[in-house]
Amino acid sequence: MQAELVEFVDAVDRNATSATRERRSSPTPERGRRIRVALVVEAAGGGVAVHIADLIRGLHARGGIEIHLVVPAGTRFDKQILDERVVSLCDFTYQVDMERSVGAHDLRAFAQLFKCLSRIDPDIVHSHSSKAGALARLCFGKWKQVYTPHAVYTLNPYLPAQQRRFYGIVEGLLGRLRSDSIIAVSVDEAHHLQRELRIPAERIVTIFNGVSRHDLLSVREARTALGIPSDAIVVGFVGRFDFQKGVDRLVGVARVFRERGLQNVVFVAIGPGDFASAADIGHSPMPTNLIVTGRLENARRYFSAFDLFLLPSRYEGFPYVVLEAMAAHVPIVATMVSGAGELVEAEEIGFVVPNEDDVTLLSDAVEAIVVDPTMRARMRANCQHAIERFSISTMIDRIVELYTHLLKESK
């Protein structure tokens, strides 16, 4: 069935009656009825949107699963990643007025979501990111609750103490009282959930994000499109232009390279947002060795232009963009954020440096790879070996196994 992206009220009125009637007359999962899964997402952009798109494609390909997608109305829904081809794989798709900020509007979003889930009557509610995770888990029903934080908010080292306490209490209570299972996307995140938020270990399962082998532009096509000289050594960045992603650190590294006289190195930043504001450039000039493209459709195609990928983030759960760099056989330099050590260091595909605003060590690590083509070649070869461990098929298999296990527990 091709799902149509419709407003919440229309979706419920048109689809709910037949869905509920089918549920009541269907056999149990053991006798062959499809598992009904409601995917609830508020931050439907960036890495979360990539994950949701991969999850939808994977669940649809596996078969035996009825997919209901609940997304936010407005700009928080990325139609370039969650495009018509992806949405068409869902059985039903709904829009709910969810917003990122906390406020009175959350009451309306909760009422809409609760009504929506009650009509869907799913076996599994799988919520993604903090806001959708909180709203969905407050909705009581017979369904099992699965939550993927995609970098639980309290991992943010710059979070003010009062906010850290508030969000820590919320995540901890919901984790202990309203979650059947929480999927951590890195070992670091799993440890944080257990040790800092005091969520029982048996509620937490670690499932790494997966990556597919995607089509890349040729090196020449990618560099021509980005305006990069063919003989340059290119350090790439792909991500949102904001404080969390450390674009100010990217600018700092570019300036250090100019000061060190490394003239043949070009930095390229691809992503949405106000770069100058996020990098806090003010009245200072942009480094001449830095190209800012802004947002590009299907940015992963351009990884072929890079000799090295730079992740200067302040915090992450398990960054999809690092997986995409690995899939493109691009060595990586990353700050020590969740997932970086488990991928970059363990697979020997780059360097991980301390997570600090002084960019000296970050610049040194980038330079070490830039000036050593033999090292780059070795890291590229290691990327090929690492791909199988972080495949989408493995990720989907483990998520479906979790769904099945939870439903068997309820029998």
Report on the architecture of this protein.
This protein has 411 residues and is α/β, with parallel strands linked by helices. The chain has two domains: 5-210 and 391-409, Rossmann fold (3-Layer(aba) Sandwich), CATH 3.40.50; 219-390, 3-Layer(aba) Sandwich (Rossmann fold). It has helices at 8-25, 46-62, 84-87, 105-120, 130-137, 161-177, 187-195, 219-226, 247-259, 275-278, 320-327, 340-345, 360-370, 373-386, 392-409; strands spanning 5-7, 35-41, 65-72, 92-96, 124-128, 144-148, 181-184, 204-206, 233-238, 265-270, 290-294, 308-311, 332-335, 350-353. The strands form two sheets. The protein has an eight-stranded parallel beta sheet, sandwiched between helices. Strands 11-10-9-12-13-14 form a six-stranded parallel beta sheet, sandwiched between helices. Helix 1 runs parallel beside helix 4 (105-120) and helix 9 (247-259) packs across helix 13.
Quickly list its features.
14 strands, 2 domains, single chain, globular, six-stranded parallel β-sheet, alpha/beta, 42% helix, Rossmann fold, 15 helices, 411 residues, 17% strand, eight-stranded parallel β-sheet, disordered N terminus
Q: How many beta-strand segments?
A: 14
Let me know the CATH homologous superfamily of the largest domain: Glycogen Phosphorylase B
Please identify the oligomeric state: single chain
Classify the fold: give the CATH topology of the largest domain: Rossmann fold
- What is the CA–CA distance across the termini? 30 Å
